[in-house]
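Tutorial, part two.
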Amino acid sequence: MIEEFYNYFTIETLFYWVNLGVLPFWLVLIFFPYSNLSRYFVTSIFPVLLLSGAYIFVLYKSYLNSYDFMNNFSLYLSIDHLLNLFSNKLYLMIFWIHFVSINLFTGGWIVKDSQKLNINKILIIIPLVVTYLIGPMGLLLYWLIRIFYAKNPSLYD
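Running the prediction step on this input gives:
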């Protein structure tokens, strides 16, 4: 049973599952941000647990393939070192799960913060879509909207 599971989840298969797996979370965030489904399912620890499981699985696969984890620290030395790391599919998958997780967490924070400030859910659709695609730009869009709704806007909220 475990062997079948291990053989099924290749890096390519896991990539598709991660991409398809976050879509329901994003759809709930975009179309039903104020629902209980969003509150208890999307902005809770549930997606973090799922994506952490995928992350651990890739780390396990990397360990079994004798991946040199100490080489990861070379990514800070130059862009060429980073490019060399991205040539490895396992490292690339670790990065992708990291990217998808951070964007989903940011989307959840945007929804919770917009609820706290009573921002119209229609106004947060575009920042959420942009956050899904290119995280930091969506967060910047949300902050620009947030400035008009916050009673005392600050840079450290």
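The helical segments are 2-8, 11-31, 36-42, 46-64, 79-86, 89-116, 125-149. In part three we will examine how such features are distributed along the chain.
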